[in-house]
Amino acid sequence: MYHPEALEPIVAFLRGIGMQVEYGEGAHGGFLPGVNIHAGVIHVDPQTLLGPGDLLHEAGHMIVLPRRYWPLMNRDLQADIDGLLAEQTAREGTPDPVLTMAARQGEFMAQAWSYAAVHHLGLPQECLFFPGSYKCTEYQGTHPMQAWIEQGTHFGLINLAHAGFTGYAGMFAHMGCNGLAPFPQMAKWTLD
To answer: Does residue 178 sit in helix, strand or coil?
Structure first.
């Protein structure tokens, strides 16, 4: 595992913001090796986890949803969110804008949220952006996804600001002022 020393601080952080994290066999068969989600509970297996940042990233997909939806999330978060949107649209005729944003921008939001969490914890960004993460295996220097965020051009920044997690930053700084400190500072870690 890349940066195993980051696992316990990440687990403590996630538990501290109200996420359930359990160690063990439930982590097998997940979207990423060593991490899986069952009914909103994140399961982790340190023996097969590639990097502790993967745990943050999967949590980031749930974080962009109001807490009431967390128990409905399982292994394939995108499919679960899309299913909720379809069900809600069929029932009410109008999709929830928060679910719509999570369905369309959740990947970017999870990436930027994870970056902010690693920054907040004072951990090396390499525990999130390691060789092979985000399907980037060959690069020199900074991981391309990390560089995109640090250059301020990553779409997660604006979407987190729109959702009230953080202030506008990077190339999106001119797009609004929500009174919050700019990314990577976070005003909140979850939606209620």
So the answer is: coil
